[in-house]
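Let us practice reading a record.
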Amino acid sequence: MGLKFCSKCKSILKYVQEEDKMYLFCGRCEHKEPVKSEYVGSEYTTEEKVTVISEAEQKLRAMETTKSECPKCKHDTAFIWMVQLRGGDEAATQFFKCVKCGNTRRLYP
């Protein structure tokens, strides 16, 4: 069983079961297609899940979060990442981006 792609926006489709019917669903444009019998192999189970998210969501959701109060909106959770801005023997600089308002700040080592 290979990947199936949306006929409208070309995103990867996921198998969804609703009551006794199965169909292919596009998470980007919400297009639905009926499942053809050749799509479902003996290895497929309803437990198998594929999540499709946009490129913008992939960039944000791939980041770790930490407890850090935003100085702008006082929200207590931020995305965190580190970048080596100086020489290899220096500590990396930490960046924080508020989950709520998007305010970005950095912490120098």
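A brief commentary: Helices lie at 55-61.
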